[in-house]
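Handout, section 3.2

Students often ask what a structure token actually looks like in practice. Rather than define it abstractly, here is a full record for Probable nicotinate-nucleotide adenylyltransferase. The first block is the sequence as you would receive it.
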Amino acid sequence: MQAIRRIGIMGGTFDPIHMGHLVTADAARMEYGLDQVVLIPDTCPPHKQQMAVTSVQHRYRMALLATDSNLYFNVLPLVEINGPSYTIDTVKSLKKNYGENTELYLIIGSDLIRSLPHWYGIDELLCLCKVIVAPRQGSIGAIKAVIHHFGETGKRRIFRLKTPELEISSTEIREKVRAGKSICYIVPENVEHYINKEKLYRSY
């Protein structure tokens, strides 16, 4: 019998990817015995459609640079589409590509937990994958409430990561770059070099 593979999925704007994303992804891999974590830069996340977002090509390259030294990380680019990209569509596609002998684990930050019950196709999503939530300070109650909201399904399919999410904000990083301040130690060194080389986040 073929062994079941456990694949983590971490989607995000990654504008830019930072150490908080990487620490959370690796903590989920360690705690849940994941064979691989796939990072996917969103092309057009529904909740950020009205915001200025750096081109997906730049964000994809930064994600590649940030993960190039970790054999357990893989970066998949989303196909350019018109309109919003929904998590359920991404998970369906990955489920089809990886096959039946695969368990999928969606890794999200606690900033998304309150909206989880309202996600497009959420009931089907919880059938297709389990959800790992990285907690931030003060988020434990909200995580428990959402697990309770989904009843037995929540208990079996939604889990809280023991390792807390690092309090790092991509918005704060962009503001630091724009102000000429250092972003050393909050993004990987090669990502910092890329941002400087491409003159990203200097202005909008």
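Discussion prompt for tutorial groups: The chain has a mean pLDDT of 92. How would you have guessed this from the sequence alone?
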